[in-house]
Amino acid sequence: MIVAEQKSLQEIRKMLEGRSRVLAVGCGTCVTVCHAGGQRETAALASSLRMATRIDARPIEVDEAIVQRQCEWEYVDVLAARIEDYDAVLSLGCGVGVQTLAERFPRKRVYPALNTKFMGMPTSQGIWEERCIGCGNCILDKTGGICPVSRCAKQLFNGPCGGSENGRCEVAKSTPCAWHRIWERAEALGLVEELMQITPPKDWSSSRDGGPRRIVRDDLRLPGEETEAAS
Amino acid sequence: MSSAAVGDVMPAGTGWKSGSHLERVLAAGHFAVTAELGPPRSWNAEAVKKKIGLLKGSVDAANVTDNQTAIVRMSSIATALLMLPEGLEPIIQMTCRDRNRIAIQSDLLGAAAHGLRNLLCLSGDHQSFGDHPAAKNVYDIDSIQLVGTVKAMRDQGKFQSGADIKGGGPPFFIGAAASPFAHPLSMRPYRLGKKVRAGADFIQTQLVYDVDGFAAFMKKVVDLGFAEQTYILAGVGPLRSPAMARHLRDNVPGVTVPDALVERIEDAAKGIDENDKEARRNAWQAEGQRICVELIERLREVPGVAGVHIMAIEWEQAVRPIVEAAGLLPRPLTDAPT
Fold it and tell me: Rounded distance, CA B269 to CA B287, Å?
């Protein structure tokens, strides 16, 4: 899932300065599951904003809405009927959701209430960890199903640096050393010789380094829609 | 035959990989001595020259660190260029933290053009430890991929892309680092081996204070057949104070300092007035140097060790007395590569 975290109330209030009617829009997918921008969090944030701005005698009217998926046109379309009533939209979606709203409602100012952090998973109650950076060229077959691209601070491809201690990364002791885990698995599964093979420099062009990415699936395009060469 | 001047350009077809002084010292079977020259956090060439003066003649070559601990300093290659005319052979360092493959290869072409011949390939300390923790890191390639890239440049005359380097590859003596005490311990001999497979001509290790532990590591390296394919220089460093000894023991990943050594440093100032700070410091430093000499003497006996790399960080004054007390002076001259 995409994991996000709410910005501070202070930062959100600063963004909204001068606005009088704001629609806070939560999202029912990833950010609901990670407790950052679901129905409950949207209600709580809206209420905090109403209270705080009233105390300051510059009240902002904040209404709430929730869409099932803020990253798809058909789900955000339901907002079209009511969005004209507001002078700004506060999105509690991830960065994709914020941009979907901004693109769908080009005359509205859209503000992000969250910081989108990473693609990851809850490893235990209240803890989320990164698992994938979407590099576009998966190597998990070579590393025992543990990703050094997302989970090693230096994105090393051929083993741990000298900063691995007691299975932890020196950059953040709370982070397991990905290569320590890869090695443990290789030893347990008898794959040491496989790990001795040198992984050559990665082709980063499939990653963000090649520019914003796009997928075209002509097999899924509808009749009458233009087809594009998936180059 | 005349001894080679540092930076002498190797004629083609001599059989040398680089013809560097360090390569020739090792090939001749001498027990090599390298040290570290940390560039200044300024553009002060005099500061570099002062350090050159402290190391010249005491070591076969000196590593020039590349923004170590991720703190901005004079660049490794630029500092190395100040060393060449002074007659102290540099080992330039290149980390993967700050440059992508384009910048790395470009800098290496320039380094070779200026006569720099020794290169240590490193991942680099993470920027979160340095003075610009908000920096973006690069890590386009890792240290092993860097070794492989430089080897292909040198031996095949090709860039990482596969394109030809006009006029052939730059003659580098390629080094890599090994951290015998870092975790996972059982992987460390294999990781060294991977660097050798990638093309490391020499290896310099992280600081060793636990010689028995290091000997166990080296036994595995020898048994796996890696030691005969590369020159391994064991890392040593003089302890300066009890605080430094404890810091290395407790806080630095990959460094193991036996309690007995920490106690020796602590005990060195026993009986000296608490207020006589200078006398206490001198006692600690003398003991630290004695321990370093003992470590070198013991490491010489470890099979597979071809030399020592002395890391006396911001204490270059200590290098000459240590090398001298270890019976390693004078340093050998080597014949010019012909």
Answer: 9
